[in-house]
Every structure is written in structure tokens, then in C-alpha cells.
């Protein structure tokens, strides 16, 4: 019978979801003892009760019946010395570190399936699968919506009025963008293909740079005069 499926949880960063990542995972599993091949014996001898047959014949009236030998539990051999590795249990706990490849585009709730890395059942049969459930940590700068990314971009009042080159962070590094003159706060600029890749198609989402105009807190009297002059521009 096939072993049970197991699951475990992983938390990754948004950068890791964007680029894809390989993470080590240590699995503790019960495996057949290599020293004794699962017999639990370092030394054994032929069962004297059944002479190694594993079953005994009993006569009941005219019937002759065969029954499993109770001395050796039907194995035909009795353990004279238990296996040192497994203490006679026939299996050991093996801690195995494997590398899990998480492809680009993972989102919270995505699952990675590792075939045959799940549980096993005593008595053999193939192992079940291991499912890794992913959580993508929220990012301090980038907000994710599906495969699109939103980022607030602070700009100076002057840049917003006059236009200029501004730096916009993306998951693949900063890019320079030309801000047109007269940009309002809250205006969104689309950076095509700068979002998260689709897990299946690899097609990337977009990034939206959301302009936030910074207002200076302390202004000189000279700057104040200039601003009053600017204020007239609103009243035209
Ligand atoms: Zn053993
Ligand atoms: Zn026996």
C-alpha cells in the first residue's frame, strides 16, 4: 500500500518568488535498516519449533492443519542477536537533506510536489508524496496584486511640476523613468513586464509606479515667496 502524503510549510521572500529559489529541506523518515535489511537481526538461527518452515502442522482428529509458528512469528528464524543499528526494530530514522526547487512565480498558497518523498507504510509499498505549501512574506516596498507589483515613488515637488528623471525600484533593480512635467500625486505609471512571472507561462506581470509628491516641511522665506508665486498658477 502506498504511504501517506505529507505536507510542510515554507515561507519565502518576494524576491525569491520573483527569481525562483532552491532551498534545502531536511526530511526525517523511517527507512528499512541497511545493516539488517529490515530483519532486525545481527545473528539468527533456524527456528527449532518449525525447523525453519515458519509453520507447524497440527493434527485435530482427522484434520491436519498448518498454522504459523508462534515461536518465530512465521519467519522461520529466531534472532539470537539484535541488530545494533536499529536495536532489532528493522527500521531506522534517516535524516536526509534534499534541495527543493521553487520555480519563479510562486504565490502564497502555491504548492510544490515532491514525488515519493512522503511517508511509507510498514510492510513496504511506494512512499507517498511530500507537498510544500508556500507563503510569500509581505515586502516593505513592493505590494503584490496577482502578478502585478505596486510601488510608491516619492518625488520632489519640483520634479512633479517641472518633470525630470526619477529612480524607480523594481524587483530586478532600479530603473530610471522620465517624469512628465505637471505630474499629479497618485498618478500611476506602468512599467511593462517588471512584475512577477506567471508560474506556468513565464509571462511577466507589470509594475505600477505610484507617484507620491513630497511636501517640504521647512521652507525659507525666499522659497515661500516662490511658492506664493506658484500658487497663482492654480488660480489661472
Ligand atoms: Zn537493523
Ligand atoms: Zn518457527
Question: Which second-level CATH architecture of the largest domain applies?
Answer: Sandwich
Any low-confidence stretches, pLDDT <50, length ≥5? none
How many structurally independent domains?
Answer: 3
Q: Major β-sheet, in short?
A: 4 strands, mixed
Instruction: Give the fraction of residues assigned to helices.
Output: 10-25%
Order of helices and strands: EHEEEEEEEEEEHEEEEH
The computed structural class is: mainly beta
The kinds of small molecule bound in this structure are:
zinc ion
How many individual helices? 3
Assigned CATH superfamily of the largest domain: Urease metallochaperone UreE, N-terminal domain
Task: Note the main attributes of this structure.
single chain, 236 residues, mainly beta, HSP40/DNAj peptide-binding domain, 3 domains, 4-stranded mixed beta sheet, rod-shaped, binds zinc ion
Model description:
The chain is rod-shaped, with a radius of gyration of 35 Å. It folds into three domains: 79 residues, Sandwich (HSP40/DNAj peptide-binding domain), CATH 2.60.260; 42 residues, no CATH class; 93 residues, HSP40/DNAj peptide-binding domain (Sandwich). The strands form six sheets. Strands 10-11-15-14 form a four-stranded mixed sheet. A three-stranded mixed sheet has the order 1-9-8. It is mainly beta. Helix content is 11%, strand content 43%. A hairpin with a 2-residue loop joins strand 4 and strand 5. The termini are far apart. It has three helices and 15 strands. The mean pLDDT is 90. The site of one zinc ion has 8 residues, from loops.
Amino acid at each position: 500500500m502506498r504511504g501517506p502524503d505529507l505536507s510542510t510549510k515554507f515561507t519565502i521572500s518576494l524576491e525569491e518568488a520573483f527569481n525562483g529559489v532552491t532551498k534545502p529541506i531536511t526530511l526525517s523518515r523511517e527507512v528499512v535498516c541497511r545493516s539488517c535489511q529490515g530483519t532486525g537481526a545481527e545473528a539468527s538461527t533456524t527456528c527449532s519449533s518449525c525447523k525453519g518452515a515458519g509453520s507447524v502442522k497440527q493434527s485435530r482428529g482427522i484434520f491436519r492443519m498448518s498454522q504459523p509458528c508462534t515461536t518465530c512469528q512465521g519467519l522461520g528464524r529466531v534472532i539470537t542477536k539484535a541488530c545494533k543499528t536499529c536495536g532489532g526494530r528493522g527500521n531506522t530514522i534517516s535524516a536526509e537533506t534534499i534541495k527543493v526547487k521553487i520555480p519563479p512565480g510562486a504565490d502564497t498558497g502555491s504548492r510544490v510536489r515532491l514525488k515519493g518523498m512522503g511517508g511509507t507504510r510498514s510492510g513496504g509499498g511506494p512512499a507517498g508524496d511530500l507537498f510544500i505549501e508556500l507563503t510569500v512574506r509581505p515586502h516593505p516596498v513592493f505590494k503584490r496584486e496577482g502578478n502585478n507589483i505596486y510601488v510608491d515613488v516619492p518625488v520632489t515637488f519640483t520634479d512633479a511640476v517641472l518633470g525630470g528623471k526619477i529612480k524607480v525600484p523594481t524587483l530586478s533593480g532600479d530603473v530610471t523613468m522620465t517624469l512628465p512635467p505637471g505630474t499629479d500625486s497618485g498618478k500611476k505609471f506602468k512599467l511593462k513586464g517588471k512584475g512577477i512571472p506567471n508560474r506556468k507561462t513565464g509571462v511577466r506581470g507589470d509594475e505600477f509606479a505610484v507617484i507620491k509628491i513630497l511636501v517640504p516641511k521647512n521652507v525659507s522665506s525666499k522659497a515661500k515667496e516662490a511658492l506664493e508665486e506658484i500658487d497663482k498658477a492654480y488660480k489661472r
